[in-house]
Design the sequence.
C-alpha cells in the first residue's frame, strides 16, 4: 500500500487548505484512515479519523475547524482545514490501517508541510 499526500503550503491565519491523500496498492486491507501532524520539536499528534462506514472522530484541537472525508471511488482521503491558526503549522501525515485503533499494521504517507503565517 502506498499513501501519497498533497495540498500543503503556506497560508495566512484564518485561511483554508485542503489536503489530499491518494491510496494505491492492496487497499482492501485499509478500513480506517487518519490524519496526524507533527510540529517541530513535538510528538506526532492524532488529528482525525474516518472508518469504512464514514464515522468520524476529531482531536479537540481541530474540532469544528477541520473536516475529514473520503472518496472511496477515487481511493482518496481529504482533510479540509478552515480557520487555520499558526499553531496548526506542522507536517501532516496520512495513515491507514485495518483497525479502529492505530497499530503496527498501519501504512503512512511521506507527509506534506502546512505553514500558517502572516
Sequence:
Amino acid at each position: 500500500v502506498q499513501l501519497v499526500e498533497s495540498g500543503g503550503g503556506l497560508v495566512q491565519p484564518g485561511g483554508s487548505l485542503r489536503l489530499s491523500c491518494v491510496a494505491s496498492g492492496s487497499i482492501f486491507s485499509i478500513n480506517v484512515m487518519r490524519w496526524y501532524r507533527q510540529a517541530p520539536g513535538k510528538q506526532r499528534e492524532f488529528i482525525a479519523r474516518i472508518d469504512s462506514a464514514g464515522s468520524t472522530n476529531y482531536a479537540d484541537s481541530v474540532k469544528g475547524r477541520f473536516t475529514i472525508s473520503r472518496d472511496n471511488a477515487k481511493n482518496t482521503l481529504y482533510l479540509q482545514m478552515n480557520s487555520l491558526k499558526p499553531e496548526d503549522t506542522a507536517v501532516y501525515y496520512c495513515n491507514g490501517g485495518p483497525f479502529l485503533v492505530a497499530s503496527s499494521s498501519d501504512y503512512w504517507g511521506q507527509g506534506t508541510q502546512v505553514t500558517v503565517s502572516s
User: Anything to note?
Assistant: The first strand starts at residue 2 and ends at 6. Residues 5 and 21 are 4 Å apart (CA to CA). The mean pLDDT is 94.
